[in-house]
Amino acid sequence: MSEETMVISEVARKFNIENHQLRDWCEVGLVRHKRIGRIRYIFTDEDKKIKKIIELKEKFGKHAPNEMIREELIKANLMSDEQTKVIDKDVNEEDINENSFKEAFLLLAKKIEEMDKKIEKKEQLTLPSGNLAEKKDVIEIKEQMNKLEQDNQRLKEVNDQLLKKLDSIHSAMTEIQKEQGKSIWKRMFNK
């Protein structure tokens, strides 16, 4: 690994990206760097990795989770497993927590979007690969949904029968009123 460095602003200019993007990648451990005072320096041997990160962000979207980017960098032999575990010591814990929060939020937003798509497609529930309790919960929910669908179907049938009977009663009442109306008129005129 080369120990030559460039100031972060020069590297950002070189790759036509914003300083904050490069700084974020440094803070989450995607790009190897060092700090002297407030100035951040990027190691020159990180150029291929930065180029690949830019390609991946274009491919997967600028909010692609950093964990996914790490995996792709490892596959491309631009990052080792050890490097993913080591985040530069001068990055303070608050920065790490803030970026972790951002990643979690973006991942959550992506999951919600996926769930919305599943709901739109009316996909059936699938058993989770997690623990047995979760599987039992899903099975119970499926059974309850099936029972509710059956109950709903029975209620529709009962409702249809009641409507037919009500219609029949209505017809009978109309006939009775007609007969009573005739008899009232007959009584009035026959007196």
Describe the structure.
Helices cover about 70% and strands about 5% of the residues. With about 190 residues, it is mostly helical. The termini are far apart.
For the residues shown, what is the average pLDDT?
A: 76
Strand content bin? 5-15%
Instruction: Round the Cα radius of gyration to an integer and report it.
Output: 35 Å
**Based on DSSP secondary structure assignment, what is the total number of beta strands?**
3
**Quaternary:** single chain
What sort of overall outline do the alpha carbons produce when their principal axes are compared?
rod-shaped
What is the end-to-end distance?
Answer: 122 Å
* Discrete helix count: 7
Low-pLDDT sequence parts: 86-97
**Structural category:** mainly alpha
Helical fraction equals 55-70%
Strand line-up in the sheet with most strands: 1-3-2
* Order of H and E elements: EHHEEHHHHH
Question: Sheet with the most strands?
Answer: 3 strands, antiparallel
